[in-house]
Amino acid sequence: MPSPERPRNEGAGDTGSGYASFLVEEAKADRLDRLLAVRLGLSRTRVQRLIEQGHVTVDGVHVRKSAAVTPGSRVAVVLPPPEAVDIEAEDLPLEIVFEDETLLVVNKPAGMVVHPAPGHRSGTMVNALMYHVRDLSGVGGRLRPGIVHRLDRDTSGLLIVAKSDAAHRGLAGAMKRREVRRMYRAASWGHLPQDALTVDAPIGRDPRHRQRMAVVEGGRSAVTHIRVRARWERADSL
Questions:
Q1: Would residue 107 count as lying in a domain?
Q2: CA–CA separation, 175 vs 26, rounded Å?
Q3: Claim: this prediction has a pTM higher than 0.70
């Protein structure tokens, strides 16, 4: 399938702003929103919003999102600049261990919160990303780092950040399908009786402490495989 012509605004990076125009060459008619989602690599929700806001024409005419687009039609899309979010960019130390045009991997230090929240409006990973990464995507039509997953404040480790709608959906889908394996190392006080065990229990918000996660009925399925790597004599149970 040929790629659409997609000139970009000067300095826009991969924010999703600009103009796209292409001739439909598919063998049969298809829904406009479904066709655009595939051709532009955007979510169906964002494509439908663009159509409803009048940013899409078929042969120069505004049509509904469910309109059947036939072969030979010319589709044109104006991609407005993504909306800014109320997050202040901050020049904080940021260790980027990998980066390409679609994503980056950042080593989050212990003690850093990933996303701004009440009580943590600054000094977060997102504040740092807004400063250091100039070509963040317009994921969902809003200019924000595409945080695919999170780590607790006191946990250090690698975070994946998406730069485009397509990368964000692909990575999130891979995690949902459990195609991404996450490994953690932890030190604990007290020895486990087993050298290896599996915890299969649903995880959700703790009903008594809403800022914490706990094993709760009706939570998300979670399976954790644990293997003891070392035992320290002075970390034995009290």
A1: yes
A2: 31
A3: no
